[in-house]
Design goal:
Layout (H helix, E strand, L loop, with lengths): L7 H26 L22 E5 L8 E5 L2 E5 L11 H12 L4 E2 L2 E2 L5 H4 L2 H7 L1 E2 L2 E3 L7 H12 L4 E3 L5 E2 L6 E7 L6 E2 L2 E2 L7 E6 L2 E5 L5 H10 L7 E3 L11 H7 L3 E4 L12 H7 L8 E3 H4 L1 E6 L4 E6 L5 H6 L7
This protein binds zinc ion.
């Protein structure tokens, strides 16, 4: 049966209109029912606004300076990165990730995908593997000599955990019907800076699609990876972008954003972090493509959950906010 499809642009326009209408409905509902839920910029519980039993959710867990993203649908879960902040011995990120997964009753992870080898992305990986039943671990296979990565590789071998390397053009075996998970980067011939394959630039970049909704998840990919993706793929249009490298100026070029044209932008970074993430340049670039109420930062907004039924999507936050005034004073950038 032929179904008339709107153009991408008009679909986007329509989505924005739907978001606004839903936002208004929610504002009325909150006033009427006293329910703490919201859409795009609202504060909320975890009640998804897209109320579909088969809805697909992306959870950006507020775990400090690092990344840990949970995907969920139909009672099945998968984790992208399990970082730990660089503060030695504190283990706060691990506790935040555990608390979040436990609050949802997660026992099993269909897969754990590690975008790259930095501590703020893999520092809690062994703990996650010990605590949850993990189906398969994916990474980019880049050689790395950190103790954390070597320990992880040893653990995978000793415990006989299923492990696969993925590169550009691969698809992650999806545990959810209707959800496609495509790897856009790194290239088979990795991105080198000098003689070494660059750790950030070779982050696994994922295009996750459910129905008409697309999420682009970029790990810590920087400008060279963005250029590679731009030159390799004709269509990287996405509704939602998880900004590369915690909102660093090393990522999120204007040209890349122009191709992605994101409606919602997510930034995972720690409150008052040592790197000044997110930087001003990407925040200014983001403002050219979306509005301030659709830019979410874990340092300010806490955990961020995007839920879609494949057509519409909603954003909810919880455990917000951290002390925003402190963040502004410390010069970590402003919510443009
Ligand atoms: Zn990072």
């Amino acid at each position: 049966m032929a179904k008339k499809r709107r153009s991408k642009k008009s679909q986007k326009q329509m989505k924005k209109i739907i978001s606004l209408i839903l936002g208004l409905i929610v504002v009325v509902a909150v006033g009427f029912f006293g329910v703490e839920s919201g859409i795009i910029g609202g504060e909320s519980s975890l009640v998804p606004l897209v109320d579909d039993e088969h809805a697909f959710s992306l959870h950006v867990i507020d775990m400090g300076q690092g990344d840990s993203l949970l995907l969920s649908k139909d009672g099945k879960y998968a984790l992208i990165d399990a970082g730990e902040t660089m503060s030695p011995g504190e283990r706060e990120s691990r506790e935040a990730i555990f608390a979040y997964l436990d609050s949802l009753g997660v026992k099993k992870l269909e897969f754990l995908l590690l975008t790259h080898q930095d501590y703020d992305h893999i520092g809690s990986a062994i703990d996650v593997l010990k605590r949850y039943d993990v189906g398969v671990v994916y990474d980019n296979g880049v050689e790395h000599t950190s103790k954390t990565y070597e320990n992880l590789m040893t653990y995978l071998a000793e415990e006989d955990v299923s492990y696969k390397v993925v590169r550009d053009g691969d698809f992650i075996s999806s545990p959810w019907s209707g959800v496609s998970i495509e790897v856009l980067s790194p290239p088979e011939d990795l991105i080198y800076k000098g003689k070494k394959a660059d750790v950030n630039e070779n982050s696994i970049v994922l295009k996750v699609t459910y129905g008409e909704t697309t999420y682009l998840l970029t790990g810590d990919a920087e400008t060279e990876a963005e250029e590679y993706i731009l030159s390799t793929y004709a269509d990287i249009d996405a509704d939602l972008l998880k900004a590369g490298h915690h909102g660093s100026s090393s990522s999120s070029t204007y040209d890349f954003l122009r191709a992605v044209t994101p409606d919602v932008i997510l930034i995972s970074c720690g409150a008052d972090n040592d790197y000044g993430h997110p930087h001003i340049e990407p925040l200014e670039n983001f403002a050219k493509f979306t509005t301030a109420d659709k830019i979410f930062r874990t340092d300010i907004d806490g955990d961020v959950v995007v839920t879609t039924d494949g057509t519409e999507y909603s954003v909810a936050v919880r455990n917000a906010p951290h002390d925003a005034s402190k963040i502004l004073i410390s010069g970590n950038g402003v919510k443009v």
